[in-house]
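Q: Could you write out the predicted structure for this multi-component system? I'm mainly interested in how the pieces pack against one another.
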Amino acid sequence: MPAGMSEAAFKADLTAVLVAVQGLVPLVLTLEETGALPSGPLAPEHRSIQAGLRSWVEQTTRHPIGHVEQLYTFADRDRSRGGAEADSVRAISISYLALTRSVPDETGWVDWYSHFPWEDQRGEAGRRITAMLVDRLSDWCDSAPGAEAERRRRRTRIAFGLESWEDELVLQRYELLFEAGLVVESAGSGGPPREGTGRPMPRDHRRILATGIARLRAKIKYRPVFFELLPETFTFLELQNTVEALSGVRLHKPNFRRLIAQQRLIEETGMISAVGPGRPAKLFRFRREIVEARAIAGTKLPVMPPR
Amino acid sequence: MPAGMSEAAFKADLTAVLVAVQGLVPLVLTLEETGALPSGPLAPEHRSIQAGLRSWVEQTTRHPIGHVEQLYTFADRDRSRGGAEADSVRAISISYLALTRSVPDETGWVDWYSHFPWEDQRGEAGRRITAMLVDRLSDWCDSAPGAEAERRRRRTRIAFGLESWEDELVLQRYELLFEAGLVVESAGSGGPPREGTGRPMPRDHRRILATGIARLRAKIKYRPVFFELLPETFTFLELQNTVEALSGVRLHKPNFRRLIAQQRLIEETGMISAVGPGRPAKLFRFRREIVEARAIAGTKLPVMPPR
DNA sequence: TCAAAAGTGTTATCCTTACACCCATGT
DNA sequence: ACATGGGTGTAAGGATAACACTTTTGA
């Protein structure tokens, strides 16, 4: 390590992106007063950070957590801009993603798309907002000199799916909007918060949430974590709605069925769910045994045939 | 956060898994005296951790780094076992993976398979070691009572590929060997270090290295990071050797060619490399433009057709 | 001439995609 | 009857895996 480094003491805190899904709506737990993600100092009395986070969340929500995963550790000097917090340099923030089954009555859960309306491509509303933002971004691209303008245009083209929408680029899209001054956090005192740019969050919590959403969207493609968000038994439509809520895109029903069926991820319970209109649906149950074996499914390298 | 948590001050340090490939050998940088991964205290004078790590590594190796990525943050109480370090509770360790082009003359680079001989499935030697370890693990499975024995057997079966070898399960394999007391770090004073269990590393550095290898093996399957490890121009065989070195498995040459060609990842330079025996090979160059567009290639959900 | 490596063809198979269609229930 | 959702069939196209084979060099 470089000479002249000073040994420094840091404050450390945990920040949790706690996710549930209710029907068509992906929910994230936020603090009511501030709108921030739940967070607190790291307690040395826990054996591991993960264990500490798990026990805290389980106390808070009174629901077991299905899946916990570390997201990212920030120790950046410029984390909170604008504030006169010289000592923010010495704060380390470790963020986690945690999934739980839905908690209808508890307060503090909000639709995560209220913070990222452009991430919901399931309906016209979200797509209109995306189009509006692409418009604004296009001005921002043009406002740069020469080569930089081209770089900005390329980033915009990829991130906002002018060819095809990639649901996982949540963070890249937020960073672009941030740089362009199109979200309140970076708009400065001049720009009034514009319609459709989403509810802001304190500090860099919206970036952390974006990281969490991106990670979750990536993960469901190779590991069936969505079962941690569903009740014990569920219909195919409920499963599809959950995945659509997370990924923010509409899925093709028949093909989605087959995709799941073919992996043998679920089995029939024999029960029938007859709520709402339409033909009653079979209730399924997740086959937990399959997950461990399928922990890593996709080798994508052309390995040599044995012998 | 739970009531009664004490505000505590932490020491924070960075640990780097710095990787290069030379011919058939994947290399990792370690400190010569201790065999530890390079690490040092986090310096508050850097704008971000990532920036600090990058500048430090570039000084140390005098080579530019192609790719840096955060691995994991440990703040576990029981990180170092055996030592009488009561205050290890208050240490946070942030680990990074970094890739660089090969550095032949510099000292301190070691074959990462010297620490994980069972991870090299390219030849008979590694496969023999794996078979030996599976044997030892089988004893460990049997030594447990009832249901636990069955759980152990299933974990072993999956991790050690008794059906099929999954190159990405590096950490799971190491954890199994650790729990079974088959690596020096966990063997206790009784068990003499056994042949074929790999060179130990101080603290939990071998676990960190395992995490880095696993991450890299996973990453090369959906993002062509291996180009960060190759020189500007290279032959197809050099490319294949690099990927084989990282993944620890032999690849099928014709199909590997087509896999790369089909993604349009490389282009001919017009030059020819005529070293060694055999027909001279065309020299290729990596097409950097392709990467950004292909940042996320694999959507695996059956989305609705547009309109 | 042979060993070693480069490089091409080809086929069977599986997976993905898109479209079409029928089934069962409540109003 | 018809709207709503449940559920199946299938055929085209693409990707993959395995095998066989030709080409070009140095020793």
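A: Regarding packing and overall arrangement: Strands of chain B lie at 11-22, 25-29, 39-41, 65-74, 91-100, 109-111, 233-234, 266-273, 281-286.
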